[in-house]
Design brief:
Elements: E1 7-8, H1 19-30, H2 35-44, H3 47-52, E2 61-63, E3 66-68, H4 70-83, H5 89-103, E4 108-110, E5 113-116, E6 119-122, E7 127-129
Helix pairs in contact: 2-4
Length: 131
């Protein structure tokens, strides 16, 4: 699952008056790695969605609620970065899969990754990123 690497979230519920903790929390929001973001994404991740995404360079995250695996972290990052317009992880995943099917013939293979104008995919079609 995570091959020995595990990220620990720096924010552990410190008081908002702790400016340093607050700034670190804001950075985690940008990365889609707050506890609330991760829990919301994990709730939507079915086995079908899990099989549709690649973990690639993402690592699992340790939180007070437990460990969120690398695939959930990848989906959370991409959904919170630019996927919220789809309304759900399910719809974003379906849109990415449809885009890949329609445009695979345009993909450029580079370093084992299929690159398209609007996304990166594994050669087997798993989603690495999709805007």
């Amino acid at each position: 699952m995570h091959a020995g690497r595990l990220e620990h979230l720096p924010y552990q519920g410190e008081s908002p008056s702790d400016r340093f903790a607050y700034e670190r929390y804001r950075e985690e929001i940008k990365r889609g790695k707050t506890l609330l973001q991760l829990m919301a994404v994990q709730k939507e991740v079915t086995s079908e969605i899990r099989q549709s995404w690649s973990a690639r360079s993402f690592t699992p995250v340790q939180t007070p609620q437990g460990i969120f695996d690398d695939v959930v972290c990848n989906i959370s990052y991409h959904f919170n970065k630019h996927g919220a317009k789809y309304g759900s992880v399910v719809i974003m995943t379906q849109a990415a899969q449809q885009y890949f099917k329609q445009n695979r013939h345009l993909a450029v293979l580079s370093c084992g990754i299929l690159k398209l104008p609007d996304g990166l995919f594994e050669q087997d079609g798993r989603i690495i990123t999709f805007p």
